[in-house]
Amino acid sequence: MSRGSSALYIALAAASACLLAGCSGASNEGPRIADSDFDCANPSAQAKTTSVAIQALPLVSNGAIHVAKEQGFFDDYGLDVDIQPAGGLDKALAAVQGGAAEFAFSTTTSVVQAVEKSVPISIVAPLGGLAPGEYEELMADPEATGITALVASEGIADLAGLDGKTVALADVRGQSELTTRWVLKEAGVDAEDVEFTVMALPDGLNAFKAGKVDAIYTAEPFLGQALAAGGHVISWPSEETFQHGVASVVVASNSYVSENTDTVLRMNCALRRAAEYSNSNPDEVRAATAKAVGVPVASLATAVPPYFAQAAERADIERTVDIMVDLGFIQKKVDVEKFAIPQIFED
Prior knowledge:
Blueprint: H1 5-21, E1 50-56, H2 63-70, H3 73-76, E2 79-85, H4 89-98, E3 103-107, H5 108-116, E4 121-126, E5 128-130, H6 134-140, E6 148-152, E7 166-169, H7 175-186, E8 195-198, H8 201-209, E9 215-219, H9 223-228, E10 232-235, H10 237-242, E11 245-246, E12 248-253, H11 254-259, H12 261-280, H13 282-293, E13 307-308, H14 314-326
Parallel strand pairs: 1-2, 1-3, 7-8, 7-9
Antiparallel strand pairs: 3-12, 4-12, 5-11, 5-13, 6-9, 6-10
């Protein structure tokens, strides 16, 4: 596929406009999986290699994608994968819609919002989420750590202390805002009394260090730096909101799914294998992520990779949909079958 700069700009601009405007004329009937004989257990049966691009973020939570490349899992399933740095979740989805990339990292929240607007995209593989029992352990053990955190400055003891304060989030009406609003609501804090500002995670960290914001939503490799700068965790918003299941996924456009089913299934299989390997080898996740991001491995020494899921549960995704309706992030419930291939629910 040609990725000339002019064509890429036009494709991304059109797709971004579609995402923002809601593609009101479109109808998302869900992914159509073509008949396929591909078997995850027999990758060597794949005779040809297919070149694809996947957009990912420079975070440990995307580590399984980098592990799949470093460990040759993509190669084993006949995929020559170009991992492209995503400029943000909206841009990653736009890249998939515009044809600049075949696959992209996203969050369940972003996918649900897009699908409600009739954007024809689908989850093709689960990625990061909560391990079985992780939420319960986090709530019971003060020393346990989560993946995303609300880090506050000295003098703010808990979520109630954010009343009247400024909090840096990573997105507008996305997963960081959703989970932050949810934990505030559960703590009895009116989110309208909290001032939210949006910054990329590195910028949020710098603003926190400079005392320009009172708290930040963050994740590794920035969480450890925020703690070293004198911050402390007052909430693990993703874990406290979702409690169980996947929070991040890999997506493709519905048209790509129907026209390239074998390739989609190979991506699904490769990422499942990477998930299993990554959960048993967290040092490899840190090493692969550090290499991809271009930072020393030592800088991620304390980073805790998420649990990488091999399958998703419908009930967990439905809980996310319900929370989004409750907080007004979407207007009506969206059927899970409309935005996920059946294989993401298979162990």
